[in-house]
Write a structure and sequence with these properties.
Length: about 120
């Protein structure tokens, strides 16, 4: 569960974990580490996790976030789970295109579409 200094909003609906960011700019290493720690705690509780990460509030992110997402995606796959990304701002999505990470991640326009993709 998120603590008082949490950088995330974490909810569970059925067997799907919804994770959203509180910060509009995810640039500082200390926050990126906190985010990774929080998501790993969620994954510690999950068996075959289905995770949707909602970028609705995010306007800027550092390249370290991309590395963290790759690590999280690998862990979810190791647990026979699935990761979906949703609501990515056009400027942020451009980073996924340039780095070709759009070919690695399943990215959806809305969280609803992301959740439906699990079925």
């Amino acid at each position: 569960m998120p603590s008082e200094d949490s950088r995330l909003i974490v909810n569970r609906e059925g067997d799907v974990y919804h994770i959203g960011f509180l910060d509009r700019n995810i640039l500082e290493e200390v926050y990126i580490q906190a985010i990774a720690t929080e998501i790993n705690r969620v994954l510690d509780e999950a068996e075959n996790p289905k995770v949707v990460i909602n970028f609705e509030n995010v306007e800027h992110l550092s390249s370290a976030v991309l590395g963290t997402l790759i690590t999280i995606n690998n862990r979810i796959k190791e647990q026979n789970g699935q990761l979906r990304l949703a609501n990515i701002d056009a400027k942020v999505y451009e980073i996924f295109l340039i780095t070709k990470l759009n070919q690695i991640f399943h990215i959806y326009e809305t969280t609803q579409q992301a959740v439906q993709s699990f079925k």
